Amino acid sequence: MKLADLGEQGVIELFKREFETLECASVLKSIGDDCAVIRLDGGDCLVVSIDTILQKTHIPREMTPEQIGIYAVNVVLSDIAAMGAEALGLVFSTALPQDMNRDFAGSIAKGMAQAAAKHGTSIVGGDTQKAEEIAITGTAFGRVKEENLLLRSGAGVGDLICTTGEIGSAAAGFYCLTNKIDGYHGFIKRALEPRARLREGKILS
Predict the structure, then answer these.
(1) Most buried one in 21, 102, 139, 167, CB count within 10 A?
(2) Does 139 have pLDDT greater than 80?
């Protein structure tokens, strides 16, 4: 059986079976939620998430280098927001082609820095590699009180379910880009410049 036959969830389960044997008492939540959760002293929890964007699947030609950076930061911070946590910092592994223009790469970095600052956090480290195509992997760290932690398992019968933003607008934007449909600039902007809902997540927690 190939990985394509398993699907994303099947691949996750494949790894999860092995990783579960490594858990320790301080790990409150591991694979299966938006972030891993590690219990700290004083009632605080450290939440950690990781996300990768790839040129072929996440970066349309219409995306500017600044938007690539903005996208990379907001994608991984969205998981921190989903847990109701405040962002502490980010690290990135950035793989770029060697023939990329210096200014283009600098603009990616500028977009990343601006997006992090907009959410009151910063990029504190990382790694750079050579690659045939752009691949950016971000790890975000956040902090939240254990009693305020938002988990996928926390919902129950009778709870009020709320959403933020316009559901499907980013998908509609990517559809417009893929099919060269003009006139829907709002949708396209949401696709190219997603926004992590950190403020809303903290309010809900």
Answers:
(1) 139
(2) yes
Task: Say if residues 135 and 95 touch (Cβ distance below 8 Å).
Answer: yes
DSSP string, 38-76: EE-GGGEEEEEEEEEEEHHHH--TT--HHHHHHHHHHHH
Which tens digits make up the pLDDT trace of 146-181? 999 888 777 788 888 778 888 899 889 888 888 888
- Tokens in use for 111? 């977009």
Which neighbouring-strand residues pair with 90?
A: 123, 140
Domains of the chain with CATH codes: 33-150+160-204 (3.30.1330.10)
- In this structure, what is the dihedral angle of CA atoms 139, 145, 148, 150, given to the nearest 10 degrees? 20
Q: What is the pLDDT of residue 23?
A: 63
Q: How much is the average pLDDT of 46-63?
A: 92
89 beta partners: 141
Residues 110 and 66: beta-carbon distance below 8 Å: yes
Q: What whole-number distance in Å separates Cα of residue 18 and Cα of residue 85?
A: 28
